[in-house]
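Appendix B.2, paired examples.
Example (i):
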Amino acid sequence: MKKSDFYYDLPQQLIAQHPLEKRDNSRLLLLDKNSGEIRHTVFSDIVNLLNKGDCLVLNETRVIPARLLGHVENSVGKIELLLLKRLTKTDWEVMTRPGKRAAKGKRFVFGNGLIAAEVLDVINLGNRIVRFEYDGIFEEVLDKVGLVPLPPYITEKLEDKNRYQTVYAKYDGSSAAPTAGLHFTEELLDSLVKKGVDIVRVTLHVGMGTFRPVKAENIEEHIMHSEYYRIDRSAAESINAAKREGRKVIAVGTTSLRVLEGASDDFGVLHESEGETDIFIYPGYRFKVVDYLITNFHLPESTLIMLVSAMAGRENILSAYREAIKEKYRFFSFGDAMFITDSDTIRREKKNE
């Protein structure tokens, strides 16, 4: 299968540059993953589209101010670091720009000296291992120095940095937001609980590898980035019970989906676990745990559009994207959402019309 099989042409003006004033006012495209039928509604209607007993899985990761702007020590040369993965108390895997200024042994200064860093090694894909030096608690210093690491296609300033967090974000560690979760409000989640939807929480720290382009034309040759995940015993037991009882498991975002599919055994059973997952899901993959997916619209030729194509079929996905473009949906991180589901949900939405 070729990378070009997942290309679509997106008008630049449809890339959302800022979040809506109210999170759940975003539009929601419903896609029957089997027939390809499409319906249009608003995200707040998700309460009416889910059933009592459905298992909704959220990713509780929290975005850290992972973008550091500084200079080379004893030089005016500018440097930018993007924190990807914490390795020890002081050591991180990072992306650097420009890379030519980040050779092994180079030292950098950020925030007028609040943080210093030294390059320990150059590793795969051009990333670096750096060691930070600082006084006090790293997270507190980082909060003073670091910036919200918005994706490169967002060029406008974000006035409220909390809008790049989900309302249920809990555990620090992501370099990018699990954007499908940005549409939920606390009131919407309360309504789902009152309806009897089983809300389960897992963690996957999103890395900027999410935005790394696929360079291999044969997608099977693509090297997938790895990301830290954790699923506790309670979450595993709740999801296993839903599967045994024939209740639907709905992942909120591709990150939650990757936790469930990457951590499950050959029989689709989950256990308490944590570690790294580099699962790459593309058409032909057989899902073991996840039935439905709530997701945003993804970049052309990205691993994420390949993932959603695995769930709904490439032609169905590209058809849905063409419809979204025709209807002027807002795309990417601050954009509108899609619910990949089945005919029962489509019928329910028609009744609610």
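Example (ii):
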Amino acid sequence: MLTWIIYDISDDNARNRVAKQCQRSGLYRVQESVFLGCLESPRLSELLLLFETWIQPETDRIYLVPLSLDDFEKMRVVGKDFDRRLVTDQINELFF
């Protein structure tokens, strides 16, 4: 399932941990604190548990937003877009 992960985390260490975990999970960095990519439900649950242990819930926030492929195709961007094929694994399919 396509998933947006968007965060606002005050502590540098926690923020770096979240970013690295998103990258390890194969997510594509869209902006500094925004990742997008395909995540299976078990992996999404794992990330939620990890993130909960790293942040301060009184001040920090992380949004995990599921997105259907149909909604993704309807998304519009003003300004420089990103390579949407990377996010949907279409490029990987070309090599298999």
